[in-house]
Design brief:
single chain; alpha/beta; six-stranded mixed β-sheet; 14 strands; 39% helix; globular; binds 5'-O-[(R)-(carboxyoxy)(hydroxy)phosphoryl]adenosine; binds zinc ion
C-alpha cells in the first residue's frame, strides 16, 4: 500500500511517505522553538504554523520519496487525540488531496501511531540510520503484546490483543511523563521542551544526591502512574537550592528527578507484568481483561520520551529480567511526533477507510475500531 501520511496533532507539522510499513520519507517541521518562549504549546500559533508549513512538508516528503501524487494509493491522517484546531489543518489538507486525486482516506489515532512505531521498517536507502541505531532489526512480535507510549501528553501502558484491539492497563492520573520532565527542566531554567536537555544534564549528575520521593512508593496501584507529587517535591527542592544553583547542583537535581520519574514508570510496568503473567484474566477497575495475557512476550515502546537512552537501558534490563523483548523504533525520527508512524499504523490496520472524518481531540486508543 502506497501511503501519504499527515500529522498535525500538536506542534510538529509532519508528512511522510510509506510503502506498507517501510518508511520512504519522513519530514518533520518542528515548531518547538516558536512555542518555547511561552513555556508550552500555544494552540493558535500551532494552527497558524501548520497552515503555513503543511504544503511544504508534503511536497518535501513526496520529493524525498521520489513519488508523484499519481503513485499514491491512500492518504492517512491523524484524527486525534491532539489539539482540535491543529488537527483540523491536517484533516482538511488530507480531504482536499483525497478529493483532488480520488484517493481513499484512512483516519489514524495518534497514540496508535506511537504504539506501532517500533514496527516501522527503514527503506534500503536509509540503512545507514538502521546501522546508527545499533543495527537492531525488528524481530517478529507476537500478540498479545504490551505497548508503552511515553510522550508529552500521554503515559499509557496498553495491552495490544491485535491491531485495532487495545486495552489500557495503566495511565497517568495527572501529568504525563514527558510533561513532568519538561516542568522539572523549566524549574531548573533549562528551556522548553526540556526532556532531552534534562537527560543531558542528568548524565553528569548523581541521582542519589538529593532525597526526592518515589511516587506511590511500594503502594503502586496497578493501573496508574502519577507524577504531580514528584513535581511538587522537585519544586520545593529547587526553591531550597535556588541561591546556590551552580552547574553541578543542576546536574544532580536533573539526575535525581529523572531517576525517580523512570523508577516509578519501571515499578508500575514491572508490577503490571508480574501480576498479569500467571493469573489471567486480570481484574482492573474498568473491567476484566480478555485474552491470554500470560502469553505476553513483547513490549513496544514509542513517544518522545522513548528517545531517552537511560530509559531505553532500564527498560531493556527489565525486559531481560522478565523474559520480555523490548522494541523501539529504528530511528529517533520515529519516536517524537511524526507522520511515518501514522502511515505505518494505516498500513497495518488498512480497515476503516472513510470519507467522512472529523477531528477527535480526545480519542482514546480503546475506542479505535477494529
Ligand atoms: O511524542 P512527542 O514528540 O509529542 C507528544 O505527542 O507529546 O513527545 C514530546 C515529549 C516532550 O515532553 C519532550 O521533552 C520529551 O518527549 N522528550 C524527551 C527526550 N526527547 C524528547 N524526554 C526525555 N528524554 C529525551 N531525550
Ligand atoms: Zn505524540
Amino acid at each position: 500500500m502506497k501511503i501519504l501520511a499527515i500529522d498535525t496533532s500538536c506542534d510538529e507539522t509532519a508528512a511522510a511517505v510509506t510503502e506498507g510499513t517501510t518508511v520512504l520519507a519522513n519530514v518533520i517541521w518542528s515548531q518547538a522553538s516558536l512555542h518555547a518562549k511561552f513555556g508550552g504549546v500555544m494552540p493558535s500559533l500551532a494552527q497558524r504554523m501548520h497552515k503555513e508549513r503543511i504544503d511544504w512538508v508534503i511536497a518535501k516528503a513526496m520529493k524525498n520519496a521520489k513519488w508523484t501524487m499519481k503513485n499514491l494509493g491512500v492518504i492517512a491522517v491523524t484524527q486525534g487525540p491532539g489539539l482540535a484546531i491543529a488537527l483540523e489543518v491536517g484533516i482538511l489538507k488530507a480531504k482536499e488531496l483525497a478529493q483532488k486525486y480520488k484517493l481513499p482516506l484512512i483516519p489514524v489515532n495518534h497514540i496508535e501511531g506511537h504504539l506501532l512505531s517500533p514496527l516501522a521498517n527503514p527503506s534500503t536507502s536509509s540503512l545507514t540510520s538502521l546501522h546508527n541505531y545499533g543495527g537492531r532489526k525488528m524481530k517478529g512480535v507476537e500478540w498479545p503484546a504490551l505497548g508503552l507510549v511515553v510522550s508529552g501528553g500521554h503515559t499509557e501502558l496498553v495491552l495490544i490483543n491485535k491491531f485495532g484491539d487495545y486495552k489500557i492497563l495503566a495511565k497517568t492520573q495527572d501529568d504525563a511523563l514527558g510533561e513532568a520532565l519538561d516542568k522539572a527542566a523549566r524549574m531548573l531554567g533549562l528551556g522548553y521542551p526540556g526532556g532531552a536537555i534534562l537527560e543531558k544534564m542528568a548524565k553528569s549528575g548523581n541521582p542519589r544526591a538529593y532525597p526526592l520521593p518515589l511516587p506511590m512508593a511500594r503502594s503502586e496501584i496497578q493501573n496508574a502512574f502519577s507524577y504531580s507529587g514528584l513535581k511538587t517535591a522537585m519544586w520545593r527542592l529547587v526553591e531550597s537550592q535556588k541561591d546556590n544553583l551552580d552547574k553541578q547542583i543542576i546536574y544532580d537535581l536533573a539526575a535525581c528527578f529523572q531517576n525517580r520519574a523512570f523508577q516509578h514508570l519501571e515499578r508500575v510496568i514491572n508490577k503490571t507484568i508480574l501480576n498479569i503473567a500467571p493469573y489471567p484474566p486480570l481484574n482492573l477497575r474498568g473491567g476484566t481483561i480478555e485474552g491470554d495475557i500470560s502469553r505476553v512476550r513483547d513490549l513496544l515502546v514509542g513517544g518522545g520520551v522513548a528517545a531517552n537512552m537511560e530509559l531505553r537501558k532500564r527498560l531493556r534490563k527489565m525486559g531481560k529480567e522478565l523474559g520480555i523483548r523490548v522494541h523501539f523504533p529504528y530511528s529517533l525520527k520515529l519516536v517524537g511526533d511524526n507522520a511515518a508512524m501514522i502511515g505505518v499504523a494505516a498500513a497495518l490496520r488498512n480497515s476503516c477507510k472513510s470519507e467522512e472524518i472529523d477531528r477527535k481531540p480526545r480519542w482514546s486508543i480503546e475506542d479505535v475500531s477494529v
